TrEMBL record:
UniProt KW keywords: Phosphoprotein
Keyword Phosphoprotein: yes
4-aspartylphosphate: modified positions: D94
Stretches assigned to coiled coil: none
InterPro entries reported in the protein's UniProt record: LytR-like (IPR046947), LytTR_DNA-bd_dom (IPR007492), Sig_transdc_resp-reg_receiver (IPR001789)
Organism: Bifidobacterium phasiani
This protein's name: Response regulator transcription factor
PANTHER family: STAGE 0 SPORULATION PROTEIN A HOMOLOG, TRANSCRIPTIONAL REGULATOR-RELATED
One Pfam family linked to the record: LytTR
Ranges for region Disordered: 29-59
PROSITE patterns per the UniProt record, alphabetical: HTH_LYTTR, RESPONSE_REGULATORY
Amino acid sequence: MLVAIVDDDRLQAEELVRLVRRSPALGRSLTRSSGRAPVGAAPTGRPDASPEADGAGGGPAALGDVDVRCFDSLDGFERFCRGGEPAADIVFMDIRFGGPDGAEGIEAVARLFPRGSATQVVYVTGYGECHSKVYSTQHAGFLIKPAGQEAVDEALAEALRRRAESSERPVLITSGGDVRVVLPRDVMWVESHRRLLCIHTRHGEVKTYLKLARIAEMLPDRFVHCHQSFLVNLDYVTSWGGDRFVLTDGRTIPISQRRRAATRAAVLAYARTVR
């Protein structure tokens, strides 16, 4: 899970990172959805690591399955969003960045995350009069600086709830001049070949021109990007051999060397192990 904090005040950004990393709401959500360890358990990075806020997607402050990244400018964050990187799941967006109208953050959200986007936005501001302006955009919360732990926990819980609901909604795919309605639970696996994307469902194939990373953003966490060209729904996996998946229809899907560690972690988090 990727949480982005967009704020030109470094101290405020660092404090928000600390509150997000400590939030039990985030840990409960990850545990419920996939059996992963809570945020406070088994850190993958230094527990005291400070975020980098360099405006270009500074070094992540990663803990468990959560990657928190800080951006100290809207330009840097927009470059990150449009640069083909995995989309942020949750964005804490400051509203004012020094412009004359004082609502640059709201304008950025309108551009980057139109209504229907799976990314959940929580606005953060020191100016209460901005409250009414945020309703022109899709958002999950509104925090007044300095935000406390309880307020961050509540905003995260609501953002995660909305994110889970959004990921299970039908996806509209343009295919051969028609618009097909695809339910995430029906998708077994997805294959990309150059610009052509083939979505294999229980009811047949849906072909379209779309990047694999884009469809991955719209699907639930049980979908694993196990290979540069493949995305697999773990609900349909009957066998896992470390370097391949075997699905319920007998299809074998490769797991690339580069993605084996991440795939293994996803499988072990998703399934219970009996010894």
